[in-house]
Structure prediction request, 224 residues.
Amino acid sequence: RKEVEQDPGPFNVPEGATVAFNCTYSNSASQSFFWYRQDCRKEPKLLMSVYSSGNEDGRFTAQLNRASQYISLLIRDSKLSDSATYLCVVNPPNFGNEKLTFGTGTRLTIIP
Amino acid sequence: DVKVTQSSRYLVKRTGEKVFLECVQDMDHENMFWYRQDPGLGLRLIYFSYDVKMKEKGDIPEGYSVSREKKERFSLILESASTNQTSMYLCAAIQGANYGYTFGSGTRLTVV
Prediction:
């Protein structure tokens, strides 16, 4: 089983719709979780951290389910500018304090 | 915010050449990383460093070496470039496990 797994997509979603993706992780002792956004031919950029109680940043909501070992990202009222690849990132403690493990990404395209 | 700078956005090198990729971070962070990113394979860790003159192998170190003579600079070296090293190379620094990585803008290397 991969340490971090994501559905690669692509997700093609009409503008204004709500879209959600999940990411599963294998190490139950993982401590830190993040969502990154990567635009085509650019570097990944931190979108948001994921906290145990769930957290929201504008149209974006991240949630953590430790029992089922997954994190999720919900995007409401999607915009054309949300088109990107979204990477799930986990900090599994057995790899050292700050070595993060990346999913391969979920590609999202917002359609006008 | 941490700023991570990679010296070149695009490089074209010939097979057998020795290639240096430079990365500089402007904060006093100990931890720096080199990844390569290829379609369908995601981000793969090549080498990382937790301190000056310290280096650890990542998941795919073969064909690469690194140098960390100063805290702010972490260099990736391709001893004898090969065509299968054509890829996007990303340098990252981390402020702390709860903050995630900051990436440089990447170097797209083509080996011909």
Observations:
- Chain B has no helices and twelve strands.
- The two ends of chain B are 37 Å apart (CA to CA).
- The interface with chain A takes residues 31, 33, 40-43, 45, 48, 50, 88, 90, 94, 96-106, 108 of chain B (CB under 8 Å).
- Chain B has a mean pLDDT of 92.
